[in-house]
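Re: the 182-residue chain
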Amino acid sequence: MAVFCCFLRFFGIFDTKSNIKFMDIKDIQNLIKFVSKAEVSEVKYKTKDFEITIKTPLAGSEAVYAQPAVYHTAPQAVAAPAPVATPAAAPAEKAEAASDDSKYVTIKSPMIGTFYRKPSPDKDVFVNVGDEVSAGKVVCVIEAMKLFNQIESEISGKIVKILVDDATPVEYDQPLFLVDPS
């Protein structure tokens, strides 16, 4: 601290009565240079109206940062679920539903985001099952990074099925609607 006080007197920051004068930017810059050459790691000076702290790394010392420990565990074997008896008609129904869906056109998500059926919570939904849509009509919005993107139908037809629940995350190219173009 004695070296520091000598510095302050030398640069006119202290007067002989140990009263501090106003430090301007030049005084602060000179103080920083002095501290870096004096090989001290920290100098802190505080008065009623003024406080300054200057920290410098000591020569030859390196900053050491602790790394969190990473633990890996081996995957555990999971018992296979017991087979569930299904009625013989179920595969036929699935095949029929798949063939029914093949005659419809799918409107897919052009981006990753959150699917909304309404433009805002107090408004009506864009489309319902059974509504007729034309090419260019807005069918939903997808919020991505705080931007609400209107998704338009690429085809004209009738909405047959809505495949996503409102306010649900969607992936790129995920089916959103089934449309009957006939």
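Residues 2-55 form one domain.
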